[in-house]
Design goal:
The complex is a heterodimer. The longest helix of chain A is centred in the N-terminal third of the chain and has 14 residues, at 2-15. Chain A has helices at residues 2-15, 38-45, 74-83, 141-148, 155-158, and strands at residues 19-29, 50-56, 61-66, 87-102, 106-110, 113-117, 123-133, 176-180. Chain A has an 8-stranded mixed sheet with strand order 2-3-1-4-7-8-6-5. Chain A has 5 helices and 8 strands. Chain B is an alpha/beta fold. Chain B contains 5 helices and 7 strands. Chain B has helices at 2-17, 60-80, 92-101, 118-122, 147-157; strands spanning 31-33, 39-41, 49-55, 81-87, 107-110, 130-134, 140-143. Chain B has a 5-stranded mixed sheet with strand order 5-4-3-6-7. Chain B has a two-stranded antiparallel ribbon with strand order 1-2. In chain B, helix 2 (60-80) runs parallel beside helix 5. In chain B, 34% of the residues are buried. The chains are: A alpha+beta, B alpha/beta.
């Protein structure tokens, strides 16, 4: 009986694979030096889930800290950068994972959101891991082409579930984030 | 709700209190500590042309400008030219490293707070580098002059 209970608990935890994203590294590109303008800071600091935005000279990126426990809106980050007149060239999210199974061209749920893993080996993510968003408008167009070819599912092109994931119970307009490790 | 009120207040204070000084304005006073921890007052430099230069170690164009300003400073320093550098670096170590890497030998100060450092708000700094050239009376005569423009003013004004 006890074993069944433990098995049930394990299964529950497995389903709710909890991961908390704590920070991100964001590279913005544009016609001028992105770190040198207050515009991106102004724009991102308005987002409720962002604790701080700091420049990192080594990687020419913004280091973004998220508020603990806040719901992270990845698209709002991109929009913030675009509203400031720049585009996202690279966005990497750092999270703490608890036994999250991922595999090439397969979906995984993290904090209730669906992530589609591309160019990865089958593995279980534990502890601190960095995911790179490879959706359209989160990486240069050339790179996006490369990643989008590695899946035949239509969600790669649109970022929406469409008709590819009905068996997972995802409605057509559910957002699916495409990531690699 | 509290956050909304705060951000509205902040936006108001920024628009009302902190517009960027214009050409023809007298330079707002600055009192910051230099590398050695000594307080340097901007108005004490009256009598010289002064370039008030906002920068940061992580700002690539600022670093390039530092290197262009070096020879001009060396040439005109004794004739009546000073540069009052203000770094918006959050990390003191990064600032000091950049000062030594760029061989900065002019007045070099820093205030914590990044874009929101009181001096950056008071001078309405929205991007880096931003610089203001002051005449001998402390009046702003040029904003964001190129190194060549600074030299032209000095060559004519400090004969």
């Amino acid at each position: 009986m006890k074993q069944v209970l433990i098995a049930c608990l394990l299964a529950l935890f497995g389903l709710n694979a909890n991961a908390q994203f704590s920070k991100a590294s964001l590279q913005a590109s544009g016609l001028t030096c992105a770190l040198c303008t207050k515009a991106i800071n102004n724009s991102l600091e308005q987002l409720a889930f962002i604790k701080s935005v700091k420049p990192d000279i080594k990687t020419s990126s913004f280091l973004i800290e998220f508020k603990e426990g806040a719901e992270i809106d990845i698209d709002a980050l991109r929009k913030g950068v675009e509203d400031a007149g720049f585009s996202v060239a690279k966005l990497q999210l750092t999270g703490n994972f608890d036994q999250l199974a991922v595999a090439q061209d397969e979906h995984a749920t993290i904090n209730g959101k669906t992530f589609h893993f591309l160019s990865v080996k089958k593995q279980t993510l534990s502890g601190e891991q960095v995911l790179t968003i490879v959706d359209k408008n989160f990486i240069p167009a050339k790179e996006f082409k490369k990643y989008s070819k590695s899946s035949s599912m239509s969600c790669v092109q649109t970022g929406k579930a469409g008709d590819c994931c009905q068996k997972e119970g995802l409605s057509a307009d559910s957002r699916i984030y495409h990531v690699t490790i | 709700m509290k956050q909304t009120v705060l951000s509205v207040l902040l936006a108001l204070s920024v628009t009302i209190g902190y517009a960027q000084p214009k050409i023809g304005d007298m330079a707002p006073e600055i009192r910051l500590k230099n590398l050695a921890g000594k307080e340097i007052t901007l108005s004490d430099l009256k009598g010289s042309y002064v370039l008030v230069d906002f920068w940061a170690s992580w700002c690539a164009p600022c670093r390039k400008s530092n290197k262009q300003l070096g020879p001009i400073y060396d040439l005109y320093k004794k004739k009546g030219f000073e540069i009052y550098g203000i770094s918006l670096d959050e990390e003191e170590a990064a600032w000091k490293k950049a000062v030594s890497a760029d061989k900065i030998n002019w007045v070099q100060t820093r205030e914590a707070g990044g874009w929101y450092a009181p001096v950056a708000l008071a001078w309405g700094i929205e991007q880096l580098p931003t610089s203001f050239l002051l005449d001998k009376t402390g009046r702003i005569i040029s904003i964001d002059p190129s190194a060549g423009e600074v030299e032209l003013v000095l060559r004519q004004g400090l004969k």
